[in-house]
Automatic annotation (TrEMBL):
It holds the Pfam family ABC2_membrane_3. It is a multi-pass membrane protein. It is found in: Membrane. Residues 17-367 form the ABC-2 type transporter transmembrane domain. It comes from Clostridium brassicae. Its main location: membrane. This is ABC transporter permease.
Amino acid sequence: MFWNLFKKEFKYIFRNITFYIFIVVVGFFYFSEFSQSTKIENLKPSTPEELRAQNKPIWYGTKETVDPKKEIREIYMNLYRDYQSGQILKDKIILNVNVNLSEEEKQYIKEAMDKIAPEEYLEKNDEKLIKVSYEEYLNIVRDLDKKLGGATFYADKNREGIVNEPKTYEDAVKDYKDLLEKDKVTNAAGRLFSDYLGITAGVFPVFLSAFILMKDKRNKMQELICSRSISSYTYVLSKYAALCTVLMIPFLVFASYATFTFYKIAKVNNYTIDMLAFFKYTFYWIGPTILFTTALGMLISIVFNNGIIAIPIQFILWHSSLLPLSGDYSLSKFVIRFNTLGEYSNYIKWSSSIALNRIFYVIVSIILALITAYIWSKKRGVVGERIK
């Protein structure tokens, strides 16, 4: 019965105009964002002299700051900005939000700044003005995080996200070598592919999932729905599985197209590539996002008996996951962002956090789908009753 319902739903989705709009959106992100960011001729870094000759800025991106003095400088300036704005960014379970500071909390920030360096440090980037050791500085910002209620970007797990410095030419050359030798070009491109196209997976599936359990009532299928020969779990999970499968198809099609494109480039330039790279990252990064977005849309629609409500809720959650562009893979982020081509060493540093995030959302998605089926069984009532 599950397989029959799966096939029925699978075929039905291909008659839904919303699905084809979704394909257009995915295609738009592929051609306007991803394909424009992976031009091979732009990968090799120019020397500072070449950039000067072309009147271009000498800029190779940013990297995490490892110099303690530079880190203190970055945090000090961030403290000043928070103090002046009267707001602070907090890492909530679901959303990263700006929270207004009370006068007492602003005073905590001012006291932390005074302990680290005098006010003239704002104008003079003089390391001699720093009054504390690195360990003392860490204790100050950790204590400040506690006083501000925790979950601020001064906490150990969040601080790296706001501490960075410009890359050197040597850094850029190393990144380029890693791109060719360790990432085999396509693994780096696969991550960027999943970054851009994963944006669409984080919100647009809700336009299908939020109404998938509503349409049978509109199509006068109550007799089938209320039949006790079909369990609620079979009914709901078959629809869920069919929708997730169909939603993956556009991503796999574009992953195939990208693989073919890079195969041609590799043949001309004598690069070694990973032919499975785009597919690996599509399943690994985009797959869990689709599972979660679809499950959440179905759950919200059945709880409120209204699919429209799921759309703004999903949009808010999606918007909260779009930033930062890399470096935050906490469990509150269901869209994976790694908005750069390359940076193999940076990816390796975050790989375990990304793996935990993806496993978490697969598990959560299954739980949400089961909860949806349970609620559906309660709403469906006994044999012969209409859906409530």
